[in-house]
Amino acid sequence: MLNSDLVVNPRLSIPRSEMSWKFFRSSGAGGQNVNKVETAVELSWNISQSEALGPYRKQRLLEFYGSRIVDGCLRICVSEERSQFQNRQIALKRLADLTARQSKARSSP
Q1: What is the pLDDT of residue 108?
Q2: CB-based contact 67:75 (threshold 8 Å)
Q3: Closest among 73, 77, 79 to 14, alpha carbons compared
Q4: Of the four, 54, 72, 104, 105, which is 20 to 30 A from 27 by CA?
């Protein structure tokens, strides 16, 4: 999942090349890794520059998540787990869920 495109639904996949990662140290309890290993992650997806989305879907996502968008990017930060791998998995799932949620909200009456 980390090395492939993110499949949101059968009609939408977010190319891995459009996602960027930052890693940092988690705050709080962390056992031996605390203040030593960068386990927290930030996943960024530049919606406004995405080639996976058409203009209508881009606009809908930007409007729907307006308060969460910074410079055209949707950012997701995760530091729940002690493992960077697990936090990356959670971030990818959240991105897929957020994108899918917008699609469902659009089709609601």
Answers
A1: 43
A2: no
A3: 73
A4: 72
Q: What is the rounded distance in angstroms from the CA atom of residue 22 to the CA atom of residue 35?
A: 16
Cα–Cα distance, 15 to 70 (Å, whole number): 20
Q: Reply yes or no on whether the pLDDT at 38 is more than 90.
A: no
Provide the whole-model pTM: 0.82
Distance of CA 84 to the CA centre of its chain: 14
The three state secondary structure string of the chain is: CCCCCEEEECCEEECHHHEEEEEECCCCCCHHHCCCCCCEEEEEEEHHHCCCCCHHHHHHHHHHCHHHEECCEEEEEECCCCCHHHHHHHHHHHHHHHHHHHHHHHHCC
C-alpha 26 chain-centroid distance: 18
Contact 61, 73 (CB under 8 A): no
| Residue pLDDT, tens place only, 48-86 | 999 999 999 899 999 988 888 999 999 999 999 888 999
- One-letter identity of residue 75: R
